[in-house]
Amino acid sequence: DQQVKQNSPSLSVQEGRISILNCDYTNSMFDYFLWYKKYPAEGPTFLISISSIKDKNEDGRFTVFLNKSAKHLSLHIVPSQPGDSAVYFCAAIRSSNTGKLIFGQGTTLQVKP
Amino acid sequence: DGGITQSPKYLFRKEGQNVTLSCEQNLNHDAMYWYRQDPGQGLRLIYYSQIVNDFQKGDIAEGYSVSREKKESFPLTVTSAQKNPTAFYLCASSIDRYGKTDTQYFGPGTRLTVL
């Protein structure tokens, strides 16, 4: 039972353009969502998060959008840079379910120079 | 210079042997976690601990054991009972042990290969 899904295993964009990574979830009890970036053979790095009371959170080139009715969130990277090439994981948590982050399968982003 | 350290980076073991993976943090975080990552999959939770001398099973705890004798340390033992131990193991910690807005920060990982 995959509660958090990233249906696109990979995405390729040109440098300078927008990258949009998508994530869907099934559990309406999730109330906090996070995006992590991961390079091969390294631990994930926290990027940005959003609470379910918001529909948008922005941090520099990264913006996360949350559509609760559709149980969908997306990460926008503008402009994309070659250094953004990595695997991106979305994760969700239910505040009452202590510590149990549920991760999606990841999307590999390639930004071409 | 705070962070989470995992050692070793690469680990090889023979089938049937137990092996212990180290995780240390100096962030003064209450909660610590162990995940496993397999190719093409997301991270799956093995064990987590919200406080010293207490820990809980995650989704895939079978074949693993942990201890939390100190706040900064959360070692994971992969026992011979774990059927598919070859994987990338990640340790994480978070400041808020009650899980609310629980941003977890990860170590660099240990790649375990069973020969």
Largest beta-sheet details of chain B: 7 strands, mixed
* Arithmetic mean pLDDT of chain B: 90
Low-confidence stretches of chain B: none
Tally the helices of chain B. Answer: 0
Largest interface: A-B, 28 and 33 residues
State the distance separating the first and last CA atoms of chain B. Answer: 36 Å
Q: What fraction strand of chain A?
A: over 45%
Order of helices and strands of chain B: EEEEEEEEEEE
- Structural class by SSE content of chain B: mainly beta
Cα gyration radius of chain A (Å): 13 Å
Helix content of chain A: under 10%
The total beta strand count of chain A reads 11
Features:
heterodimer; A: 113 residues; mainly beta; six-stranded mixed beta sheet; five-stranded antiparallel beta sheet; 11 strands; 0% helix; globular; B: 115 residues; seven-stranded mixed beta sheet; four-stranded antiparallel beta sheet
Quick description:
The complex is a heterodimer of chains A (113) and B (115). By secondary structure, chain A is mostly beta strands.
Detailed description of the structure:
The complex is a heterodimer of chains A (113) and B (115). Chain A is mostly beta strands and 113 residues long. Chain A is built from no helices and eleven strands. Chain A is globular. By secondary structure, chain B is mainly beta. Chain B has strands at residues 4-7, 10-13, 19-25, 31-37, 43-51, 54-57, 64-66, 76-78, 87-94, 105-106, 110-114. In chain B, the strands form two sheets. In chain B, strands 2, 4, 5, 6, 9, 10 and 11 form a seven-stranded mixed sheet that branches. In chain B, strands 1-3-8-7 form a four-stranded antiparallel sheet, with no helix packed on it. The radius of gyration of chain B is 13 Å and the shape is globular. The interface between A and B is medium-sized, with 28 and 33 residues.
